[in-house]
């Protein structure tokens, strides 16, 4: 299963609305956010709001940026990195 089958491009457009991440694509904002939260990091308030709206993360406290992946978020992560070795995945996080 591909990430686009879990969250369509149309849904990405709808949820992101007018959020501006410069030259970073909207899909990449989602992908990077899922990776951050999978490894225990956190994004900014706009990114976590987008991920929450997609149902990919759950915040313990709305006044905090801390969140964890939902079952849908874990499914998205598996789809995103299905053919990636653990070493390559860890290298992604060390950049």
Index terms:
95 residues; mainly alpha; two-stranded antiparallel sheet; 2 strands; 55% helix
Can you characterise this structure?
By secondary structure, the chain is mainly α. It is built from six helices and two strands, in the order ααααββαα. It has a two-stranded antiparallel sheet with strand order 1-2. A hairpin with a 7-residue loop joins strand 1 and strand 2 (67-69). Helix 3 crosses helix 4 and helix 3 (26-38) crosses helix 5. The longest helix is centred in the middle third of the chain and has 13 residues, at 26-38. The protein starts with a helix and ends with a helix. The mean pLDDT is 88.
Helix and strand composition category: mainly alpha
Q: What is the number of E strands?
A: 2
Count, helices: 6
What profile does the largest beta sheet have?
2 strands, antiparallel
List the helices and strands and how they pair.
Blueprint: H1 3-6, H2 9-16, H3 26-38, H4 45-53, E1 57-59, E2 67-69, H5 71-80, H6 86-93
Antiparallel strand pairs: 1-2
